[in-house]
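Lab channel / #folding
Pinned by the channel admin:
"Please post every new chain as: sequence first, then the structure tokens as a reply. Keep commentary short and put observations after the output so the thread stays searchable."

First post following the new format, from NK:
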Amino acid sequence: MSHPTRRGRARAATEQDIRRTARKLLVEQGPEAVTLRAIARELGITAPALYRYYESRDDLVENLRLDVCADLADDLAEEIAELPDDGVLQLFAICKGFRRWALTHTKEFTLVFASPTGGVGSTSGSALSRVDEPFGRIFLAAAGRVLARHDIVLPSASSVPDELRDDLKTFQESLVAVLVESDQGVPVEKIDLGVTYLMIQFWARLYGHVTLEVFGNYPIPMSKPDVLFESMLADLAREIGLYSA
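Reply from TO:
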């Protein structure tokens, strides 16, 4: 078994320090504060020195995004590990945990899930669009258990609008790969365009609700947003033939 060299250990420690500093700036000041100049100032080094470790600011932000996604997935995995082996219970626990995390980690949520194209973190896209990353995996693994063990109401493949088929086919391939690897016993043939369409709709409603709440963008004052969220999950459960969220 090989051991890291002294230079390798020093480099890893420095990269860890850089990302830890970037995370601190993110949490305290927001995504716009994560600049190479600000990180260098915090570490007492020159900004050009950071290029030995990251090719660009986008490269650093992408690594920071991956760190945040991994931490979110770890938190959710610990949470559902305490629950019974029930896909429905775990899936909706993940939904609730995601909302709770977003409301208590608004700067990280903004970086990973809400950066506009061309803005901070624009290299990342949606965290669920990368279904092979930790958050996508834990979300889809729970969804896979629901598909494998419950008779849910699925839209037929023929009901998918023609204009969406090409986009959904690309997502379908990634979805199949992750669900097969997660070994939830979902028959590959069951993951058709109808299932893929359902997954996208489910995520859009979950993400849309959480985003509105995080940024305070409800069209009316909402004194009980938690009740609205629980109602949305209950509606989703009923629509797909599950009766408790």
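NK: The chain has a mean pLDDT of 85.
TO: also worth noting, Residues 132 and 178 are 6 Å apart (CA to CA).
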